[in-house]
Design a protein that fits this description.
167 residues; Immunoglobulin-like; ten-stranded mixed β-sheet; 10 strands; 0% helix; elongated; disordered N terminus; signal
């Protein structure tokens, strides 16, 4: 029997934006879910931001934490992300920061911010991403957190963990 993909009480909120911007402006921000089929039900996802005061040209970090649960129950997963950009190019630059937390490689919560940074400016943040999902079958699944910066400089990082689902 096919199970409908349910995105219940869609908690895709961007709570507490405590970002560190210096001579920079957020141009665009989006959060969304993705998944190819109905084998995993995504319940909710959101991101919480915390300021970071350490800078470099472009650096990223990502970590995923192990999770466990039972079949057809809510399993709460989380990842940690960090990034910093320091515009040393001599002119205004646009950067895109992508944060992603994926269960089983394809069921993902995405958060994307495009920021304009003036000459000598900087943008940094550390965030926690959360994805609540439910699995129809017992087994071990992967959880991957990814942080990517693109622009005149780039950086990416990822961290993997395990989701253990029992009957």
């Amino acid at each position: 029997m096919k199970k409908l993909v349910l995105i219940g009480a869609l908690v895709a909120t961007s709570s507490s934006y405590a970002l560190e911007l210096k001579n920079a402006e957020i141009l665009e921000h989006h959060s969304w879910f993705s998944g190819p089929d109905n084998k995993i039900t995504i319940i909710a996802g959101h991101i919480e931001n915390n300021p970071n005061t350490y800078f470099s040209s472009a650096s990223t970090s990502a970590r995923a934490d192990n999770a466990r649960g039972t079949v057809n129950s809510n399993i709460y997963t989380n990842g940690s992300h960090g990034f910093s950009i320091n515009n040393t190019s001599g002119s205004y630059q646009t950067y895109t920061v992508n944060i992603k937390l994926c269960a089983n490689s394809t069921y993902c919560f995405h958060d994307q911010t495009t920021v304009g940074v003036y000459k000598g400016g900087s943008y940094s943040n550390s965030s926690n991403s959360y994805l609540t999902c439910s699995f129809s079958y017992a087994g071990n699944y992967t959880l991957e957190a990814t942080t990517t910066i693109s622009g005149d400089t780039s950086s990416n990082a990822s961290g993997r963990a395990s989701i253990s689902v029992s009957k």
